[in-house]
Design a protein that fits this description.
This protein is an alpha+beta fold. The longest helix has 28 residues. The protein folds into two domains: 167 residues, Jelly Rolls; 103 residues, Arc Repressor Mutant, subunit A. β5 and β6 form a beta hairpin. The protein is globular and about 55 Å long. α1 packs across α3 and α2 packs antiparallel against α3. It has a six-stranded antiparallel β-sheet.
């Protein structure tokens, strides 16, 4: 089984790498140090990491550019196999679920012909998606329970995760082909919003980020994202809230603050208006990510 990327300065509390009874993508739960570097990594397979708790600011750099990223609970990072940065410095302790999305595992499962398998080539420095969170939740719960549903279920969850990642990458391709901000500026704006949902975002501030006047920025943004700035930010806040509601340990007040709502009541009213059910009922209906219990490895 392909090992998870060896990121330094982390404490591993769960890992299925040596578990011969787990047939899904290798996954693990670890906690980072308060400060750390992850320099010159070569990722052996497509890698993704979902933030469970904490908050960290990361600066990744190559010889030609640097990028600042803020990760908070419910966000994830994902990169294809290979080398994507020379230096990476993080400040802030986070607990994460990391997965090594090994395409060879999907091919060996024979669930689909190789030509029909989803591609794993999307780059997501900072994203959030309820579908991904739900799939990872199911994978973690299945592994913690001792894989009672067997090989087919574990492999099918891995295929579903790969398909969603592939779908999100293709959505980006279609979205940024439209006239508007252009791929580079649209990606910058999207990643900034994802990392700043807890903050007070404004059209003027976003326009300033890409050097465009607010009056010109608003229509260009709508051309790129097919919705207004306000509606896009609201949709992302609700999406992030849905992800956090699928994780244990978050009160509604915590989620309201993490997603940029003025108060718990404002969050609850807005969530019910858009989703159709209260946050409490949504939580009851969904699967929860539980990481408190660390099972013994069986390999």
């Amino acid at each position: 089984m392909e090992p998870l990327p060896n990121r330094p300065d982390t404490t591993v509390s769960l890992s299925c790498v040596r578990d011969k009874d787990w047939y899904g993508f290798p996954l693990g739960v670890c906690t980072s140090a308060e400060k750390g570097d992850w320099n010159d990594p070569h990722l052996p397979t497509y890698w993704m990491s979902l933030i469970i708790s904490g908050r960290c600011a990361t600066r990744v750099g190559t010889k030609s550019r640097q990028k600042d990223i803020v990760h908070s609970p419910g966000t994830f990072a994902a990169y294809p196999a290979g080398r994507h940065w020379d230096t990476a410095t993080s400040v802030g302790r986070v607990k994460v679920i990391s997965l090594s999305c090994d395409w060879k595992l999907l091919r060996n499962s024979r669930l689909l012909e190789a030509d029909d398998l989803p591609r794993l080539d999307g780059i997501f420095p900072c994203g959030s998606d309820t579908g991904l969170t739900s799939i990872i939740s199911c994978m973690l719960r299945e592994y913690e329970a001792g894989s009672p549903s067997g090989r087919l279920y574990a492999e099918s969850l891995s295929l579903a995760l790969a398909a969603r990642l592939n779908g999100m990458a293709r959505e980006d391709d279609r979205q940024f082909l439209a006239e508007g901000l252009g791929r580079q500026r649209a990606t910058l704006i999207r990643d900034f919003i994802e990392g700043s949902l807890a903050e007070d975002l404004s059209v003027a501030g976003l326009a300033r980020l890409v050097g465009i006047s607010p009056s010109r920025f608003a229509p260009l943004f709508k051309n790129s994202f097919s919705t207004s700035v306000h509606q896009f930010v609201l949709n992302r806040r609700i999406e992030r809230a849905c992800s956090l509601l699928s994780m244990d340990g978050y009160r509604n007040a915590d989620i309201a603050a993490a997603c940029g709502f003025a108060s718990e009541s404002h969050f609850s009213d807005t969530f019910k208006r858009i989703i159709g059910v209260s946050p409490r009922n949504y939580r009851r209906a969904g699967a929860s990510i539980r990481v408190e219990r660390v099972p013994r490895l069986k390999g």
